[in-house]
Amino acid sequence: MAATRVYAARVAGLAVFGPDGESIGKVRDVVAGLSTAHQPPRVLGIVMEMAARRRIFVPMLRVVRFEPNAVTLATGSVNTRQFHQRPNEVLVLGQLLDAKVTVAASGASAVLVDAALEQTRTRDWRISRLAVRERTGRLARRGPVQVLEWDQITGLAAAELTDRPQGVEQLLALLDTMRAVDVASTLHELPAKRRYEVAEALDDERLADVVEELPEDDQKDLIGHLGEDRAADVLEAMSPDDAADLLAELPEVDKNRLLELMEPAESAPVKRLLEYSSDTAGGLMTPEPVVVGPDATIAEALAMVRNPELPVALSSMVFVCRPPSATPTGRYLGCVHIQRLLREPPSTLVAGALDTSLASLPPTAALAEVTRYFAAYNLVCGPVLDDEEHLIGAVTVDDVLDHLLPENWRESGLPDRDDRPGAHSPDAPKASDDA
After folding, report:
1. How far apart are CA 9 and CA 406, in angstroms?
2. 249, 255, 361, 365: least buried by Cβ within 10 Å?
């Protein structure tokens, strides 16, 4: 049986199914229209994330039912243009959660922790009730959660949400269940004020992972907002190639200042990458591939590629070099593909499983040459050597794709959609729900 009341925080991340039962996306937020009168706001629709991280608006009239583990859409069409929030709208998860409110009856200060979406007799959906937690005493201790009617709460006017500082505890709890790439997509859709609040609350490692997935303009905006010391800490936690790409887009004075603030051991590989053009193998590579000496065993090499923090593409190949193992390494001897590692006895030396015939890339190789190299050898990772046969880094296929795709690919940048109530355009491109 379809639910007629659901809580917004429990909707986040639910799978969305078309009328034929096929999975077409996930719920990322709920859109409501704030009214000037103190009345429960109307729920306009959901923000659904489709393939390739595109977020679209799905009107509530297309939602057939909410179930504990899924949302089902009706037969019909929805506009597949990229979601963009409008001034009279609020993102329930992104903006309402953690809002500081006042309980009208007692005047007590409270924090909004959830919102109930309820279907009325006219089949409209409204935010009927709010779950809030009062803060009591001088130390603002957390009180019990209570559920109140919308008109029993004050402090949720659009202007108040825009101007007032807001907590992030509930929103962070939701984001903590998401991959960095999905968190980045969520932050991109939030107003700048809310984006800054979330970024300030994330630890350096998590924020670094998220910044790596943001569009370039958002990256520069956040780094500029954080302040020099915090920005340097985040850059240190980023992959050197991503940090170099970001620094290369900043004004020269800002780039140099941040490099000065970074720890020398962290800034050194970034500086080396900045010596190369971004569209060459040297500019594309990461200076932290998996490197072992010739006397390492297969078991030791496999232990290194099992590191869960290692990107998938980098874990596909182990490079064997004379000491030192940090780039630039000693003389490059060859590589071992992960398939070969899995086929060999664990006690065997990697030197006995070397692929010495695979061609390498010079750091000056242009993007077109790098692309042909990956296509010709069917690779996801390839070595970059200097003129003296030292390994200085490795290029991965994801870095190549980043530069082959349009600059705004992370935004899935399509124009605004026009399928919300009162804004329908018959000329807007449509796609069926089961597209």
Report:
1. 34
2. 249
- Cα distance between residue 247 and residue 84, in whole Å: 28
Encode pLDDT of 162-201 as tens digits. 777 888 999 999 999 899 999 999 999 898 999 999 999 9
pTM of this structure: 0.81
Model pLDDT for residues 326-340, shown as the tens digit of each residue:
999 999 999 999 999
* Ramachandran bin of 25, using left for φ above 0, alpha for ψ from -120 to 50, beta for the remaining angles: left
- Residue 189 near residue 95 (C-beta atoms within 8 A): no
Domains of the chain: 1-201 (no CATH), 291-404 (3.10.580.10)
Write out the two tokens for 8.
């917004």
Least confident of 133-147, 194-208, 386-400: 133-147
Q: What one-character-per-residue DSSP string does 63-124 give?
A: EEEEETTEEEEPSSEE--SPP---TTEEEIIIIITT-EEEETTT--EEEEEEEEEEE-TTS-
